[in-house]
Amino acid sequence: MSNSLPEEVVTCLQNARFLHLATCSENIPHVSLMNYTYLPNTPYSSSPIIIMTTPASSRKTQNLESNSLVSLLVHDWISHRPPTLSQPGRSPSPTRPAPRSGSLAELLLGMNTASLSRISTTINGVAQMVPSGSEEETWYKAQHVANNTFSDGTEDIYSTSPGGQGLWGSGGLGNGAASGDAPREGNAGAQCYLDGEEVRVVIVKIRDGRIADWKGQVRDWRLSEGTQGTLPNGTAD
């Protein structure tokens, strides 16, 4: 056990753009791709937490209301799938035009997963719905918006979705909203902030997890019980 997260987990949480949130209710699993904010501590919690927002009527919200145990998957892998070897009756996947000899494209395609990938980490924790209209909710929302607001142009460069439109792209769930409408879940940048009574702020208090690298090596970690305390209204228990 440790009083703090492993350094590589902290680095991964600070650098990754999205995470996968796994919830479950009545033995039916559900996975969502989420914007998030990681904080090592807050005025309301002495332990590391992750902030997310979700519509009150969503599947994951319903799951969280019946089962607060969640798993998160975060990784800092930036590599793409390498081509498979040609086999009889099967074309290589994915197929790409051959780059010119000595070109930058050839160099980039020559970079394998080992040189670009580092770790993935599975995080287990307990989710908590922040009371609607509370000062705590306001504080968490402000942190979440600040962490997911990007300067002009940088979002397109670093976006992990086609078209540089963030989580769902221009054709996703956020598309089709009229000007002035509240942004919908999945939009990137400041639009990850969902305004309105139907929006819930969720925090996940981290308990333990597992680190895996591209070689398949794994290492388990766990926070000590004392690290998982809370600070209601900014004061210790």
UniProtKB/TrEMBL annotation:
<dbReference type="InterPro" id="IPR012349">
    <property type="entry name" value="Split_barrel_FMN-bd"/>
</dbReference>
<feature type="region of interest" description="Disordered">
    <location>
        <begin position="81"/>
        <end position="102"/>
    </location>
</feature>
<feature type="compositionally biased region" description="Low complexity">
    <location>
        <begin position="88"/>
        <end position="102"/>
    </location>
</feature>
<dbReference type="GO" id="GO:0005737">
    <property type="term" value="C:cytoplasm"/>
</dbReference>
<dbReference type="Pfam" id="PF01243">
    <property type="entry name" value="PNPOx_N"/>
</dbReference>
<dbReference type="InterPro" id="IPR011576">
    <property type="entry name" value="Pyridox_Oxase_N"/>
</dbReference>
<dbReference type="InterPro" id="IPR052841">
    <property type="entry name" value="PMP_oxidase-like"/>
</dbReference>
<dbReference type="GO" id="GO:0005634">
    <property type="term" value="C:nucleus"/>
</dbReference>
<protein>
    <recommendedName>
        <fullName>Pyridoxamine 5'-phosphate oxidase N-terminal domain-containing protein</fullName>
    </recommendedName>
</protein>
<feature type="domain" description="Pyridoxamine 5'-phosphate oxidase N-terminal">
    <location>
        <begin position="5"/>
        <end position="146"/>
    </location>
</feature>
